[in-house]
């Protein structure tokens, strides 16, 4: 590959442009380039690879479009080259027929010109947001100066005639030594008339009057620099503004990577023609603008498709104006309403109006009045008075048309808070099947907050889902300065992981698709049923469900080499096994000498060491009292596995009933044994099971006060085969085996001093983990062997 650009008039295009031209995704182009013979070779210029368009078209001419990728009107003889030429012709025709009322400046996009334009744009934005901002805006970078820049950019891109008039007037005014305030008043007047025509609030003249320019020449410099910008500079200006301004949760903008991810997931889940998109908390209009930008590409594939109608609302006057300007850059009139109330209490009723809702509401903000919360109608439960997180989630759902989808940014706290009101809302949402997917995002995405966040993908209750897909995308993104940025490849990785589960649920073969994420960007994921979510306190925080090494590694992403992934899983388990082996070796050298060092052992009866408590009677926790909707899990013998207490599934009771039975609550360190039923090893209660309830069929062992007893040591003693045999022998020989508290209390327990108990328990626990990891490794190796055999032999 050469490092010199092509010296030719033939248009030069990037891989993303090839994908757009051929009507495929960006990863498909990478697959073609790596695996297909004769694919054109690129030339590198700067940091980008470029291809000759004619060479790409010739190669595409020889490649037929497979049935599953065909678009409307395409038949058996359609090639990717034919499609590309048709789309190019449509794009040219549309460019020649743009309406004069919305003349968007379309720059030359050849690689050389584009590189020059990008450098020029970034340089101009840097200068505008540097010392010039202080000279015009006064001390600090104020939002008033932002209005000036974005207002001028609007004129530059959308109203070329007015832009030229403003530029000429400013130049003449500076030459005539007119005061800077007079020049700004003229600009403000022009902008007010235009935004009023768009349906937004005229306020530029007032806002620009607050600027404090040092000279009229600085105003001329600002106008000249804005003249070097195109539409894409809007986001660059916003990004620079955020770097300097100290924005609160109400004010900061949603980063473009997160916007692209949310729009992509919502539209992919919706799967139909999107007609209306709504944002109940408009910031800079970034969601709505992104939706408007996407059809510019889509219309080349579907020229008869109308762009969606976008609308939103905000309580901030500045946000209303800036969002309106952003939408105007894409030829849309203002669909942003300035409201004085929260969206669920205002006069603008949005119930059932949107195909898609996209929003980034303020985090953990309080409804100070509280009255609306008491009188409002909430399908999934009244939100608490101390924050509006789940009020926005419910409003988004209420605003959806049948079949609609919503993507909303939520602080992680909203997913697993201990608030009873929020827990009940999450329970109701999961039970109704309106939560489709939750994605944990990387830290430091936002300039204004370090609060960890997730994206909740919600769906209209007319199309409920039985399980929730959790994705952990915290490792994605590129670090830049103080923030982390989601790149296009990161968005694709999350989308492909989501689609692999979605397609797999419909029995499609995603592993055979040529499209897939970068292998270096694997996104851990797991599908979780309602009973498992209940076991985690109705948590919707992905980190409560995805644990390292435990995610479903067999679920393939489209285009992924499943055998390669299996080998990666084997390698991961091998490493975990190595760590477990080393831990056991180190502990063995520390613990075993204690057996011969003269340690004094004693023998005690179990009843003297522990309080042994039987579970409540069936009259108090009967079958009619239990069900999947309960808040408190009830532990039965079948939930005791390998020394652990597992998910209790649908065996749950209400919090009200559990509150009446405090004597039967479990707490950390308790040991639960089988009282009646098939005898098996007991299990220990860990932190996450504290507060669960005993069933009538179990016994609880709790160390007595003042007794030196380590719970993990006692668990290991009870797991000894001799002890399990002793318990089995003393279980009553009836139709259903059972053991009484008195009989179990007579069990002998041999104890060393407490420090030795702990050292032995540490070693035995490490050995248990070592055995578990090696069992998983053996299963993974066997599974990889089967996959490899299937792949090789099927191919043969």
Produce a short descriptive summary:
With 796 residues, the chain is an alpha/beta fold. Helix content is 44%, strand content 14%.
Please, could you describe this protein's structure?
By secondary structure, this protein is of the alpha/beta class. Helix content is about 45%, strand content about 15%. The protein is built from 28 helices and 25 strands. A nine-stranded mixed beta sheet has the order 6-5-4-7-8-10-9-11-14, with helices on both faces. A four-stranded antiparallel beta sheet has the order 16-24-21-22. It has a three-stranded antiparallel beta sheet with strand order 1-3-2. Mean pLDDT is about 80; it is low at about 1-5, about 90-115, about 365-375, about 505-520 and about 550-560.
Mean pLDDT: 78
Q: Report the span from N to C terminus.
A: 35 Å
Helix % is 40-55%
**3D shape:** elongated
Strands in their spatial order, largest beta sheet: 6-5-4-7-8-10-9-11-14
Radius of gyration: 32 Å
Count every beta strand, where a strand is a DSSP E run of 2 or more residues: 25
For the largest beta-sheet, the strand count, sense and barrel status come to: 9 strands, mixed
Return residue spans where pLDDT drops below 50 for at least 5 consecutive residues: 2-7, 92-117, 367-375, 505-519, 549-560
Structural class: alpha/beta
Strand content: 5-15%
DSSP summary: helix tally = 28
Task: Name its key features.
4-stranded antiparallel β-sheet; 9-stranded mixed β-sheet; 796 residues; disordered N terminus; alpha/beta; 44% helix
Structural topology:
Elements: E1 12-13, H1 15-22, H2 26-35, E2 43-45, E3 48-52, H3 53-61, H4 80-96, H5 111-128, H6 131-137, H7 143-158, H8 160-175, H9 180-198, H10 204-208, H11 216-226, H12 233-244, H13 256-270, E4 276-279, H14 286-301, E5 309-314, H15 317-328, E6 336-338, E7 354-359, H16 371-375, H17 389-398, E8 400-411, H18 412-416, H19 420-432, E9 435-440, E10 453-459, E11 467-472, E12 478-480, E13 483-485, H20 488-505, E14 525-529, H21 530-535, H22 562-591, E15 602-605, H23 606-609, E16 610-614, E17 632-635, E18 640-641, E19 644-645, E20 652-653, H24 655-659, E21 671-674, E22 683-684, E23 693-694, E24 698-703, H25 711-718, H26 721-730, H27 741-745, E25 748-751, H28 754-795
Parallel strand pairs: 4-5, 4-7, 5-6, 7-8, 9-11, 17-23
Antiparallel strand pairs: 1-3, 2-3, 8-10, 9-10, 11-14, 12-13, 15-25, 16-24, 17-20, 18-19, 21-22, 21-24
Helix pairs in contact: 1-2, 3-4, 5-12, 7-8, 7-12, 7-15, 8-9, 8-11, 9-11, 13-14, 13-20, 22-28
């Amino acid at each position: 590959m050469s490092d010199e650009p092509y010296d030719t008039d033939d248009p030069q295009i990037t891989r993303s442009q090839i994908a757009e031209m051929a009507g495929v995704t960006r990863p498909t182009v990478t697959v073609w380039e790596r695996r297909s013979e004769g694919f054109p070779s690129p030339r590198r210029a700067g940091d980008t690879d470029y291809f000759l368009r004619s060479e790409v078209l010739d190669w595409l001419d020889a490649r037929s479009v497979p049935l599953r990728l065909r678009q409307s009107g395409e038949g058996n003889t359609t090639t990717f080259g034919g499609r590309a030429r048709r789309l190019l012709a449509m794009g040219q025709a549309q460019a020649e027929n743009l309406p004069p009322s919305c003349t968007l400046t379309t720059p030359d996009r050849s690689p050389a010109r584009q590189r020059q334009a990008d450098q020029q744009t970034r340089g101009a934005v840097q200068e505008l947001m540097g010392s010039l901002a202080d000279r015009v805006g006064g001390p600090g970078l104020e939002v008033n100066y932002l209005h000036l820049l974005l207002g001028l950019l609007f004129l530059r891109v959308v109203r070329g005639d007015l832009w030229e008039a403003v530029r000429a007037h400013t130049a003449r005014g500076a030459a005539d030594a007119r005061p800077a305030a007079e020049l700004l008043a003229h600009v403000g007047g022009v902008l007010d008339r235009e935004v009023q025509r768009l349906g937004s609030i005229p306020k530029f003249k007032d806002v620009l009057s607050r600027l404090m320019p040092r000279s009229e020449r600085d105003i001329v410099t600002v106008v000249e620099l804005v003249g070097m910008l195109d539409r894409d500079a809007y986001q660059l200006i916003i990004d620079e503004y955020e770097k300097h301004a100290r924005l609160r949760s109400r004010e900061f903008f949603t980063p473009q990577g997160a916007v692209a991810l949310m729009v992509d997931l919502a539209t992919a889940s919706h799967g139909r023609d999107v007609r209306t998109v709504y944002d109940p908390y408009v910031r800079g209009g970034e969601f709505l603008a992104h939706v408007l930008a996407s059809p510019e590409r889509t219309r080349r594939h579907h020229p008869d498709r109308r762009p969606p109608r976008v609308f939103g609302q905000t309580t901030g006057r500045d946000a209303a104006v800036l969002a309106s300007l952003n939408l105007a850059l894409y030829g849309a009139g203002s669909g942003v309403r300035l409201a004085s109330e929260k969206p669920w209490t205002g006069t603008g009723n949005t119930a059932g109006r949107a195909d898609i809702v996209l929003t980034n509401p303020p985090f953990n903000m309080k409804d100070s009045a509280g009255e609306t919360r008491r009188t409002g109608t909430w399908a999934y439960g009244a939100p608490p008075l101390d924050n509006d997180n789940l009020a926005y989630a419910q409003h988004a759902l209420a605003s959806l048309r049948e079949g609609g989808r919503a993507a909303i940014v939520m602080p992680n706290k909203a997913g697993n808070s201990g608030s009873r009101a929020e827990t009940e809302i999450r329970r109701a949402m999961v039970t109704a099947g309106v939560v489709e997917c939750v994605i944990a995002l990387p830290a430091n995405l936002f300039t204004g907050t370090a609060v960890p966040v997730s994206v909740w993908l919600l769906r209209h209750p007319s199309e409920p889902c039985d399980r929730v897909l959790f994705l952990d995308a915290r490792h994605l993104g590129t670090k830049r300065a103080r923030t982390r940025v989601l790149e296009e490849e990161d968005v694709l990785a999350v989308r492909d992981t989501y689609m692999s589960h979605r397609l797999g649920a419909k029995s499609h073969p995603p592993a055979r698709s040529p499209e897939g994420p970068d292998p270096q960007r694997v996104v851990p994921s797991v599908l979780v049923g309602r009973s498992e979510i209940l076991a985690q306190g109705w948590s919707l925080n992905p980190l409560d469900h995805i644990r390292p090494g435990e995610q479903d590694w067999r679920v393939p992403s489209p285009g992924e080499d499943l055998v390669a992934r299996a080998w990666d899983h084997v390698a991961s388990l091998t490493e975990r096994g190595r760590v477990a082996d080393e831990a056991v070796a180190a502990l063995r050298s520390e613990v075993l000498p204690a057996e011969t060092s003269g340690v004094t052992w004693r023998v005690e009866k179990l009843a003297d060491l522990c309080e042994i408590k039987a579970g409540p009677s069936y009259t108090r926790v009967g079958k009619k009292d239990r069900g999947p909707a309960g808040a408190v899990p009830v532990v039965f013998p079948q939930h005791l596995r390998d020394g652990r207490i597992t998910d209790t599934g649908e065996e749950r009771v209400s919090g009200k009933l559990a509150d009446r039975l405090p004597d039967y609550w479990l707490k950390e360190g308790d040991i639960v044994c089988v009282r009646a039923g098939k005898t098996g090893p007991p299990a220990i209660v860990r932190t996450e099971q504290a507060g669960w309830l005993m069933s009538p069929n179990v016994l609880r062992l709790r160390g007595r006060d003042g007794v030196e007893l380590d719970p993990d040591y006692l668990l290991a003693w009870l797991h000894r085969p001799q002890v399990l045999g002793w318990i089995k022998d003393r279980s009553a020989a009836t139709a259903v085996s059972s053991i009484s508290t008195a009989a179990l209390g007579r069990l002998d327990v041999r104890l060393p001093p407490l420090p030795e108990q702990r050292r032995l328990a540490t070693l035995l626990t490490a050995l248990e983990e070592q055995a578990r990891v090696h069992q998983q490794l053996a299963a993974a190796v066997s599974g990889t062997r089967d996959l490899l055999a299937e792949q090789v032999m099927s191919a043969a």
